[in-house]
Design a protein that fits this description.
By secondary structure, the chain is mainly alpha-helical. The chain has a single domain (14-81), classed as Orthogonal Bundle (434 Repressor (Amino-terminal Domain)). Helices cover 67% and strands 0% of the residues. The protein is built from six helices and no strands. The longest helix is centred in the N-terminal third of the chain and has 15 residues, at 14-28. The two termini are 22 Å apart. The model is unreliable at 1-5 (pLDDT under 50).
């Protein structure tokens, strides 16, 4: 429950979330369709996130954060996009 209440405050702006989704997808070398399958959402959903028409749900944010944690520069991205959470 705590996560659901705080997830909406993790990323401050829709623009920031769009940038994160694009950055994550590109760094993982995935298409929108591949990222959607990895996160358990549809390709149009990823497209809406990237085009700032919607934001990921709290559950999707958790999955996005998990994917970010797999990147080499995870600490920098986590600090930038998930500043209110501990990741050490």
């Amino acid at each position: 429950m705590y996560y659901l209440l705080t997830a909406l405050n993790i990323v401050n702006k829709t623009q920031d979330m769009a940038e994160l989704v694009v950055c994550l997808r590109q760094r993982l070398g995935l298409t929108q369709e591949q990222l959607a399958a990895r996160l358990g959402v549809t390709c149009p959903t990823v497209s809406r996130w990237e085009n700032r028409r919607s934001r990921p749900s709290p559950i999707a944010l958790k999955l996005i954060k998990s994917a970010v944690e797999q990147l080499d520069d995870a600490e920098n991205l986590l600090a930038q996009y998930f500043p209110d959470q501990s990741f050490h």
